[in-house]
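Data card: per-record layout.
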Amino acid sequence: MLTALSIAMDALAYGMALFIICIGLSLTMGLMRVVNLAHGAFAMIGGYIASWAMREHDLGYGFGIALAIAGTVMIAVPLERLLYRRIYDRSELTQLLMTIGLTFCVIGLTNYLFGPSLKTIPLPAALAQPIDLGFRSISGHRLFVIVSGLAVAGGLWFLVARTGFGVHLRAAVENAPMARALGIRTETVYALSFALAIGLSAFGGVVGAEFLPIEPYYALRYMVTFLVVVSVGGAGSIPGALAACLLLGAIDVTGRYLLPDFGNFFFYLAVILVVCAFPRGLMGRAP
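The structure for this 287-residue chain is written out next.
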């Protein structure tokens, strides 16, 4: 019983870390209709910035996260203006080629600037210590990741479903020319949505570094994982992304605990079965 609870808590923390990173990609693909293969590269940039700030300049964990988000968004906004805005209405092949090229450029630059070694993100004492939940102890950092994931899910749902910005975003996605005719500045809506997605990827890259270590080929190593999570959940669906992350996280962690020799076998077997049963994802919308 204790083993099952341990696996469940670890799976929940891993699933939430995946969700924080992948929900930005889900919004970009589902709402903005951009297949952004460079999403993991922005998570990697956030992790590198946080590691550099905390290890080289002895900044605290909170400052490291804030600097990672701000720095990554500042890098992403000009790229959205100069590159992404040119491919919003282009074919998926064009989007794939541009974003995969950007991924390799980011990998080359981070290797040149920060070196090829693994980057660690030190945890503060409060998050490094275990917390007693009554039925078992869990590390403070994993509990922080779980709470952060729930806060991100609730905040995004409120933003998209209950605010004027969410109404403008949905209108721009459904019919951009009509939205512009009604006075909605679609370019501004897209830019803010892109910045939000990239900020979440940077946040996820930092808080999820325990599960997905920051290293030179992070963007390529986890690219497929991020894409399949979004596909399984249904692009653009916040509940779908959350369900996919929790389901796949549970399967992956359980498989690694009980049958470690099989590696990612059960993770991708689950992906195949879900995609066969739900071609549009668990909560995907009809085109």
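Known properties of this structure: The two ends are 44 Å apart (CA to CA). The mean pLDDT is 87.

See the next section for split statistics.
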